[in-house]
Amino acid sequence: MHNLYVPPIKIVFFLFLIILTGFSAKFLQQSDVPLPKFEMKIVSAEPIQETEIVRPPLTWSSIPIKTNGSDRKYGNIVSMQVFLRSEDFAKAEWWAERIEELVKAGKVANIYDRKTIIIFPEHIGTGLVLLDEKETVFESENWKSAMDVIVKKYESEIAPFMVASKKPAAKWEAVFRYKSQKMADVYTQTFSKLAKENNTPILGGSIILPSPKVVKGTLVLDQNGPLYNVSIPFSADGKVMDPLIRKTLVTEDEALLLDAGEITQDRTWIVPGWKVGVFIGQEVFNSALYERLRGKPLDGIVSPAVSFPNLSKTNLKSFINDDSFLSLSENEIWEKFGLTKFIKTTRAVESVQVFLHGNFFEERTSGRTYNVRDFVNFDSVDSDSEPRILNLYF
């Protein structure tokens, strides 16, 4: 065993220290001597408040309407050239108001009747992927960097939508899938409401969605299906109609995340008074698509489109066998090597191509909205920086 003996003097000294410490503490409490205070600050981890985007002001006070032909009561095609900024897609009501102002202008001018159809531009609904985003997204240099910001923001939310994909932009795909239902709801509610209110069929330009289909007049999505650039028609009673036209000739940028539609798909939209073929954007350069319409009853061909100044002529060479197009301006290429060149392959007489215009992350659009009546009577808009309406009487 160890020796646990402690000398008495050490025990007395230990007790003395305890008494002295207690006395000192009591003295300090009763005296005026300030005691140092040690405060622990608790910092709450509040989420960073993102700045709301400010809506861009209008740069126009009215929407001019140009008319090709006269009203012979055979019907008319109304082309709506929309002008949008990236920020217009931030709020559902902002985007809807840009659409509604054009339809309202046509109604005020009394150009709608029971045989009217209204055509909107390509990708008019695609920007709805920006719904409810804040200023950090809209400060991006271009749409690609904006998508990267959104990917980072929703990294955990988009994880379930990362289906097996060989596309270069699989994460962008996942963002579109994650937001697709909200995009589709805003898009369909807006065009359905306007078609019903004006008793007029509307071709709602196009929008990127995952494998949409029509079920009893309602648009249904397959979240795990391929993404398509799809043009969606609405009947005069506001219901979604078949056929949904899926773009078959996708651009380089679209190919980053989209599948191409089947060439064999039905692309004839039939409404009271009209049978029209629908070609989306660059599809107008593909002669094989016109051949599929040869001999079929058809009144006209309409094309929702969007283009940027650096139109890739290299891509077009596989569809345009005449190298003379290389020396032409972009507008001349669209007008001479698209609808007007191939329409006589079909039984259609009228042709319309309507372009989306705007300023998207400092990138401006190009392309001239135009129509041609009876193959020869050409008309076009006078601006690509404001909304315009072209009215073509049959």
Q: Strands across the major sheet, in which order?
A: 1-20-2-4-5-10
N→C terminal distance = 118 Å
How many individual helices? 10
Low-confidence stretches: 1-6, 10-31, 35-47
Structural category: alpha/beta
* Helical residues, percent: 25-40%
Shape: globular
Order of helices and strands: HEEEHEHHHHEEEEEEEEEHEHHHEEEEEE
InterPro entries: C-N_Hydrolase_sf
Protein name: Hydrolase, carbon-nitrogen family protein
Keywords: Hydrolase
GO molecular function: hydrolase activity
Q: What report would you give on this structure?
A:
The protein is of the alpha/beta class and 394 residues long. The chain has a single domain (70-393), classed as Carbon-nitrogen hydrolase (Nitrilase/N-carbamoyl-D-aminoacid amidohydrolase). 28% of the residues lie in helices and 20% in strands. It is built from ten helices and 20 strands. Helix 2 packs parallel to helix 6 and helix 4 (143-153) packs across helix 6. The radius of gyration is 32 Å and the shape is globular. The termini are far apart.
Helix and strand arrangement:
Blueprint: H1 8-30, E1 65-68, E2 76-81, E3 83-85, H2 92-108, E4 116-119, H3 135-138, H4 143-153, H5 155-158, H6 170-198, E5 202-203, E6 207-210, E7 213-215, E8 218-220, E9 227-231, E10 233-234, E11 245-246, E12 268-271, E13 274-278, H7 287-291, E14 300-305, H8 313-316, H9 330-337, H10 339-342, E15 350-355, E16 357-360, E17 363-364, E18 370-373, E19 377-380, E20 388-393
Parallel strand pairs: 1-20, 2-4, 3-16, 4-5, 13-14, 14-15
Antiparallel strand pairs: 2-20, 5-10, 6-9, 7-8, 9-11, 12-13, 15-18, 16-17, 18-19
Helix pairs in contact: 2-6, 4-6
InterPro entries: C-N_Hydrolase_sf
Protein name: Hydrolase, carbon-nitrogen family protein
Keywords: Hydrolase
